[in-house]
Amino acid sequence: MPKVRRDTFLDRGPEVMDFLREQTPTRFAWVPEYADYLPEQPGGRVRGRSVEPVPMDASFLDDELGRLTKPYTKAPANLIVTQADFRKISPGLRTLRGPVTMVRVLVKRIISGLRRQRMYAMGNAIVIGLRQGLIDHGVDVHYGTPPVGLVTEEGRVVGVSVMRDGVRSTIRATRGVILGSGGFESNRELREKFLPQPTDASWTTGAASNTGGGHEAGIAIGAATDLMDDARVGTDDPAAQRTVVLLGRAQPAGLDHRQRRRPAVHERGAALRRGHQGDLRGPCDGAQRRTRLGW
Ligand SMILES: Cc1cc2nc3c(=O)[nH]c(=O)nc-3n(C[C@H](O)[C@H](O)[C@H](O)COP(=O)(O)OP(=O)(O)OC[C@H]3O[C@@H](n4cnc5c(N)ncnc54)[C@H](O)[C@@H]3O)c2cc1C
């Protein structure tokens, strides 16, 4: 990762958090003891610095809630389990705070049920807040309007060509066009071209709608690309289809005994390092034989 990007992230990150706090209803809280990816590196923190959204009652979003993508791991019975809760619950009955946290989660669920609240946490709570922020500021959102190309004039991008109800039209930009279409995790051709083999468009927990449309539109007009061969790689648990094992930071160096014959070490950062090196053979071979691209 180029230094300029890392420095920009550190310098401007707090500004982004202030912006979100001012412009959206989402609030964030620290996830204590959720280790950095590479805490052993200079400046790394074993106690972590991740923040996550505070669970919120999103009744205010009403019908728009139907558009939310379901969380990729959903707790049963609509229980709201935050990352901070998960960290305490994941050791199961081996610690006292596991069952205590579970009871607390259950009690909260009963109370929110009685209050008829529609509670959301994690990524959903971020997206709900962002959506409400757009509504509050009168920003138009066009659903079902895929971009089919960028419009250029005199070497400058001046708009986007889109399909709406089967009709092609142009949205002209007043100041600039920002491509925010995520990664290309669901695009087989781009994965085969840029990522280590084998690869498969279904090996992802990212948005199924991330088909690389933004990348293709940019490449089509000669835009430069960078870091296309890099990805956040996770391991999947063969016992739980499509579940990337996420315990690495919650239980750094923990031993997973769910696969009794082949326990897996959740070495923090291992998957990241191996992924960046283009090595997809399995960061912690053993239970997790197949390594898949996470996001
Ligand atoms: C399971 C999982 C856990 C994660 N956990 C964390 C975490 O704890 N902390 C953290 O910081 N990050 C985490 N991440 C990473 C984080 O979610 C992503 O880095 C972030 O969402 C990327 O934001 P984005 O806006 O670039 O893309 P996305 O959030 O992927 O959004 C892209 C959007 O563009 C839309 N789109 C794509 N193609 C088109 C098209 N052609 N036309 C129209 N729309 C299109 C998609 O529908 C999507 O809504 C996690 C990711 C996953 C998958």
What report would you give on this structure?
The chain is of the alpha+beta class and 295 residues long. It contains 8 helices and 11 strands. It has helices at residues 3-23, 83-89, 97-114, 122-136, 188-194, 213-220, 247-250, 270-276, and strands at 28-30, 51-53, 56-57, 119-120, 147-153, 156-164, 167-172, 233-235, 254-256, 264-266, 291-293. Strands 5-6-7 form a 3-stranded antiparallel β-sheet, with helices on one face. Strands 1-2 form a two-stranded antiparallel ribbon. Strands 3-4 form a two-stranded antiparallel ribbon. The two termini are 16 Å apart. Residues 259-266 and 281-295 have low confidence and may be disordered. Residues 72, 146-147, 180-182, 205-207, 209-211, 213, 295 line the site of flavin-adenine dinucleotide. Flavin-adenine dinucleotide binds at residues 72, 146-147, 180-182, 205-207, 209-211, 213, 295.
Structure at a glance:
This protein is an alpha+beta fold.
Compute the separation of the termini in Å.
Answer: 16 Å
Which series of helices and strands comes N to C? HEEEHHEHEEEHHEHEEHE
DSSP, total strands: 11
Question: Multimeric state of these chains?
Answer: single chain
How big is the Rg? 21 Å
* Percentage of residues assigned to helices: 25-40%
Strand order, biggest sheet? 5-6-7
User: Outline, from the CA principal axes?
Assistant: globular
How many helices in DSSP terms? 8
Overall pLDDT confidence: 83
